[in-house]
């Protein structure tokens, strides 16, 4: 028997990265705090609090701290989009974070490059169990729901063939990466980075500091270079929203069934 009730905080930067979840929540209560709406309720049988952080590390850190301190969440899931930093990745692929780093943190010479001062750490690990569940949820989504969830027209428009799921390093910074040179500055030093975005490592740092398990999933929306999006907003609406909804649904189901066994 598991006696610790779960309250899952679900964060996305933008509305489209969380579409559909709030609409099907039950027993909904919305609380506004620090310019964000925290929507509490039940999703597929578990207590959840959904919130849009807005863009960037400060926005994500403030939202994460509020979810933990004010809303008492026990676990955090972040769902959103990212640019590909590894040339193997294609638009439509999925990355689950194993570790996260802030690529724009540099307090040299006081601390080594990328290290978050006074933590002794530059890379923060996501929770292994949650991340495994998220990885399984993403793989199930691609295997089972992908072909029906995404319209053929949109698959062709965004050239999505058979998306793949990766697990690895995500780098975050307060910068949208839209040029080869910008990306190279990051990957020259952080060679294992799979994807770049603007919030994940801030969520990771706050969760580490509060001892809250977390996991992060990102759909690749662009190649973090000049070719970048065809149409970013359309990608969010037509592709990323479907990914997020189905992956969260499958993640919660897996999380529930594994807890029932413990
Ligand atoms: N989120 C999605 N694409 C991104 C990019 N190219 N840079 C930073 N954040 C992103």
Give the name of the CATH architecture of the domain at 79-258: 3-Layer(aba) Sandwich
The helix content, as a percent range, equals 25-40%
Biggest sheet overview: 5 strands, mixed, barrel
What ligand molecules are bound, each kind once?
Answer: adenine
What's the β-strand tally? Answer: 10
Pathway: Amino-acid biosynthesis; L-methionine biosynthesis via salvage pathway; S-methyl-5-thio-alpha-D-ribose 1-phosphate from S-methyl-5'-thioadenosine (hydrolase route): step 1/2
InterPro entries: MTA_SAH_Nsdase, Nucleoside_phosphorylase_d, Nucleoside_phosphorylase_sf
Pfam families: PNP_UDP_1 (PF01048)
GO molecular function, one term: methylthioadenosine nucleosidase activity
Please outline what is shown here.
The chain has 262 residues and is α/β, with parallel strands linked by helices. Helices cover 34% and strands 28% of the residues.
Keyphrases for this structure?
Rossmann fold, 34% helix, binds adenine, single chain, 262 residues, 5-stranded mixed barrel, alpha/beta
Write up this protein:
The structure is a single chain. With 262 residues, the protein is an alpha/beta fold. It has a domain at 79-258: 3-Layer(aba) Sandwich (Rossmann fold). It has helices spanning 57-69, 128-149, 152-157, 180-187, 200-210, 232-261; strands at 7-12, 26-33, 36-43, 46-52, 75-84, 94-102, 123-125, 165-172, 193-197, 214-222. It is globular and about 50 Å long. The mean pLDDT is 94. The structure holds adenine. Residues 81-83, 176-178, 196-198, 221-222, 224, 228 line the site of adenine.
């Amino acid at each position: 028997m598991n006696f610790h009730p779960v309250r899952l905080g679900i964060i996305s930067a933008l509305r489209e990265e969380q579409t559909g979840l709030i609409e099907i929540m039950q027993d909904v209560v919305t609380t506004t705090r620090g310019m964000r709406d925290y929507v509490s309720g039940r999703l597929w049988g578990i207590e959840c609090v959904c919130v849009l952080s807005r863009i960037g590390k400060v926005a994500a850190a403030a939202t994460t701290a509020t979810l933990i301190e004010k809303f008492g969440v026990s676990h955090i899931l972040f769902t959103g989009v990212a640019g590909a930093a590894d040339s193997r990745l294609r638009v439509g692929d999925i990355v689950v974070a194993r570790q996260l780093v802030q690529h724009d943190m540099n307090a040299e010479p006081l601390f080594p490059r990328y290290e978050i001062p006074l933590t002794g750490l530059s890379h923060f690990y996501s929770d292994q169990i949650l991340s495994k569940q998220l990885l399984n949820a993403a793989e199930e989504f691609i295997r089972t729901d992908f072909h029906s969830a995404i319209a053929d027209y949109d698959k062709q428009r965004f050239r999505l063939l058979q998306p793949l799921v990766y697990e690895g390093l995500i780098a975050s910074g307060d910068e949208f990466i839209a040029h080869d040179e910008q990306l190279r500055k990051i990957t020259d030093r952080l060679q294992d980075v799979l994807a770049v975005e603007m919030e994940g490592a801030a969520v990771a740092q706050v969760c580490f500091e509060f001892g809250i398990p977390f996991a992060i999933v990102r759909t690749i929306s662009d190649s973090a270079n000049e070719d970048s999006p065809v149409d970013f907003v359309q990608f969010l609406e037509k592709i990323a929203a479907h990914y997020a909804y189905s992956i969260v649904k499958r993640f919660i189901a897996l999380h529930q069934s594994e807890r029932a066994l413990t």
